[in-house]
């Protein structure tokens, strides 16, 4: 995510490294590089210019504390201004209605239908809501079927009526169905077009007037850069929507839409899509995104994801096993399963400070654990519970059964023993100690 921009901003800050103080000359050179980096990221020229002017004005005349280098101070200024540019604080979603009605809008191909499902899944699993999806795209072939497939995946019902070709009455019927069946959130998936047109705008405005939603959300593909910003502006002029959803952010190496869309339409980015899975949805935190853009990682989000998958009962059992030296490969496997539930490996690595830069250019596959799981599944129950029994003959059999080499089996055993030692060392402080270590990394 935003790899190109992160690299170029890092090079811009490099200008100040080694300097003992901030001067007009070295600040001018740095801000020139920052502006160039933003323009390369497809940020609007006016926004890039205003941003760098603000950074320059704040940097010149700053007294550098003895604990800070000029480069560190400039990084802090840029981080604060990026945070402000992207909205400042995270914006919640209005769920005050009964039911709460959320109207989704956007162009065809922006990922609107998929994100409707992701949002329904998020509200169901994280906010304990009982959502209903309503299919109001009567034009695109198989759009209704697609929403039903998405609904089945996440266990959320879908209201549709293929006999009704009027999106406005469909939306009203969907809200009525939700009231009658105890659904407290209604997410209305509307039709998209290949380009902004009058018929589309009139239709979605009519749906909004008919169902008076608590939230009108505009879904846009982050990878389209300034096109995304321009489309958002056109929609906002007609719809006056409440917030933006940026999809496909995991594939966006530039970041132009994320950085400039709030400034152009004066509406917050509320959620981002970070992958294809139904749980690949995050609340948009401007401060955390600024950290990631500047290569500082996002430890808070990483810890939050870990806590979501944390099973206290299982953790207690593992603690007892560690104390008794009976921690085995089945337990190791359960830890891997929890890590996999946290999201894509590439996304997780991007949250670790400095890791993105250290692993730049490496292809981080979501199947990174595949060969480890294959090796463990090739062990007998006795071998998994008592790893010390793995002699040369057993290792050879396991390597053959898992399609790996003896070297890979030995490497896994080494990693397992290192992890066991680390967990034993940490046992006194438990999860709190781990949390402190991660926070200190910032």
From TrEMBL:
Span of domain SRP54-type proteins GTP-binding: 268-281
Cross-referenced SUPFAM superfamilies: P-loop containing nucleoside triphosphate hydrolases, Signal peptide-binding domain
Entry EC no(s): 3.6.5.4
Keyword set, alphabetical order: Cytoplasm, GTP-binding, Hydrolase, Nucleotide-binding, Ribonucleoprotein, RNA-binding, Signal recognition particle
Subcellular location: Cytoplasm
Catalysed conversion reaction: GTP + H2O = GDP + phosphate + H(+)
Residues at which GTP binds: 106-113, 189-193, 247-250
Principal subcellular localization: cytoplasm
UniProt xrefs under Gene3D superfamilies: P-loop containing nucleotide triphosphate hydrolases, Signal recognition particle SRP54, nucleotide-binding domain, Signal recognition particle, SRP54 subunit, M-domain
Pfam families: SRP54, SRP54_N, SRP_SPB
Oligomer and partners: Part of the signal recognition particle protein translocation system, which is composed of SRP and FtsY.
Primary role: Involved in targeting and insertion of nascent membrane proteins into the cytoplasmic membrane. Binds to the hydrophobic signal sequence of the ribosome-nascent chain (RNC) as it emerges from the ribosomes. The SRP-RNC complex is then targeted to the cytoplasmic membrane where it interacts with the SRP receptor FtsY.
Domain notes: Composed of three domains: the N-terminal N domain, which is responsible for interactions with the ribosome, the central G domain, which binds GTP, and the C-terminal M domain, which binds the RNA and the signal sequence of the RNC.
Record-linked NCBIfam families: ffh
Family of the protein in this entry: Belongs to the GTP-binding SRP family. SRP54 subfamily.
Name of the protein in question: Signal recognition particle protein
Species lineage: Bacteria, Pseudomonadati, Bacteroidota, Flavobacteriia, Flavobacteriales
Gene name for this UniProt entry: ffh
